[in-house]
Design brief:
This protein is an alpha/beta fold and 348 residues long. The chain folds into two domains: 195 residues, NAD(P)-binding Rossmann-like Domain (Rossmann fold), CATH 3.40.50.720; 129 residues, FAD/NAD(P)-binding domain (3-Layer(bba) Sandwich). Helix content is 26%, strand content 19%. Helix 3 runs parallel beside helix 10, helix 6 crosses helix 9 and helix 7 packs parallel to helix 8. The chain starts with a helix and ends in a 16-residue tail after the last helix.
């Protein structure tokens, strides 16, 4: 087995430590192919032929520029580098990690930074990979770099219009309302109303963090339970119990209809009865949109090199999907034909 072999050979630093996100449990509970945030080959060993340790060598001398060092960009750069390609990884900030830099500081999520730590360490071993920190690139910068292919992995940002899982149209919020998202947690005024229509970890984790910091927190969600999708990761009851135990005011089955200055208007999902909640700051945790300005700018330019958007920049999702997207791009890069999935077929 590969893990014991790494220990036997003194290569413990190559072991991808579990981050405890339970995405594997979510795949099991949803009856879909198994997934692992740290090991993107999980569940694809037979179907795609992805070996968990070995990867095919490069088939050309192409130079690849990866823009963005979040989960997708880091994995793409690492896997491309392991194939032997010349890779240049550009990151706008000083620290690598993208969304992980914020998320691992939320209560109970400190181990998530292992996604960054492992890849940053492994990249440091590859002489064919260069990393450029504090290097925010424009479309012209990308063109001037003259890479043979560009990977855009610039992540996503939280929506400010209220569109989420339960709503497809914007929520009417007056311009003088103190409204923020997880992207801009500043100028907080109590009580803080956390509106969760994302339903994974973010709404509950932010409510917990703010309450532990001493704020008066009201948590409202469209679902009948707190952080509903964490049922899939077997954590939901722990999240809800935790919020209640520290004094978060929980309101379930409430859909936000609008907000005017310091008053939010809700409607109960089942009874349709309206209700109002007074707040100082409205924290919207709903949907996310790709941060794809660079992708769009390149598409509008003449002479741009071939480019591909991956991860949250292509389709916002959880970290495991972003890592998977980066790995898949690297595996399929330079293939002459699209990979055909193997499928189990019953004998006649």
């Amino acid at each position: 087995p590969f893990l014991p072999a790494k220990i036997r050979d003194g290569r413990e630093d190559e072991i991808r430590e579990c981050i405890g996100c339970n995405i594997c449990r979510a795949a099991n509970n949803e009856a879909v192919p198994l997934r692992c945030t740290q090991n993107p080959t999980m569940g694809e060993e037979w179907r795609r032929g992805w070996h968990p340790v070995r990867i095919e060598s490069k088939v050309s001398e192409k130079r690849v520029l990866v823009v963005g060092a979040g989960p997708a960009g880091l994995e793409a750069a690492l896997a491309l580098g392991q194939r032997g390609y010349e890779v240049h990884l550009a990151e706008a900030s000083r620290d690598l990690g993208g969304r992980l830099l914020f998320e691992h500081r939320l209560p109970g999520l400190s181990t998530w930074i292992r996604v960054r730590d492992h890849r940053e360490h492994m990249l440091s071993k590859l002489a064919n990979v260069s990393i450029y920190r504090e290097s925010r690139l424009t479309a012209q910068d990308v063109v001037d770099f003259s890479a043979d292919h560009v990977v855009i992995a610039t992540g996503s940002r939280w929506r400010r219009d209220g569109i989420g899982t339960a709503r497809e149209t914007p929520i009417q919020i007056s311009s003088d309302t103190s409204m923020i998202t997880p992207d801009d947690l500043d100028d907080l005024k109590d009580p803080i109303l956390v509106y969760d229509d994302d339903n994974y970890f973010m709404g509950g984790a932010l409510a917990e963090r703010l309450r532990l910091e001493g704020h008066h927190v009201i948590y409202a969600t469209t679902q009948p339970i707190v952080s509903a999708w964490t049922q899939m990761t077997d954590e939901q009851y722990l999240v809800e119990e935790g919020l209640v135990s520290i004094g978060v005011d929980v309101r379930v089955s409430h859909t936000l209809q609008g907000a005017d200055r310091t008053l939010a208007i809700f409607r109960h999902v089942l009874s349709k009865e309206p209700t109002t909640i007074a707040f100082g700051t409205l924290l919207m945790v709903t949907g996310r949109v790709p941060q794809d300005d660079l992708y769009a700018d390149l598409g509008a330019m003449n002479g741009a090199p071939p480019f591909t958007a991956i991860g949250d920049c292509f389709s916002p999702s959880h970290i495991a999907d972003a890592v998977y997207a980066g790995h898949r791009f690297a595996r399929e890069f330079d293939q002459s034909e699209p990979q055909q999935l193997r499928r189990e077929r019953p004998s006649p």
